[in-house]
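Priority: medium. Attachment 1 of 2:
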């Protein structure tokens, strides 16, 4: 993932993650080092797949987030849940 995750591009992220989860991967790690903006729509997608992974007995985490992503996840108290 790279660039901005806006409400519009969150749908693209959701579609890509649906494909990955459709392949029955139990552990999914999303590299966000090149993401410089994360909207509430992007947060919604991350939470949705975190919950889906947990429900399936797997895990979903964000790896190498940019400083902006760290700040957003920290402000929403999701950093401990999502960051690897």
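Attachment 2 of 2:
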């Amino acid at each position: 993932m790279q660039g901005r995750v806006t409400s519009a591009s969150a749908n693209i992220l959701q579609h890509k993650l649906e494909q990955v989860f459709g392949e029955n991967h139990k552990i999914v790690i999303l590299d966000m080092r090149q993401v410089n903006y994360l909207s509430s729509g992007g947060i919604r997608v991350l939470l949705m797949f975190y919950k889906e992974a947990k429900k399936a007995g797997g895990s979903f985490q964000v790896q190498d987030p940019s400083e902006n992503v760290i700040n957003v996840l920290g402000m929403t108290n999701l950093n401990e849940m999502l960051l690897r």
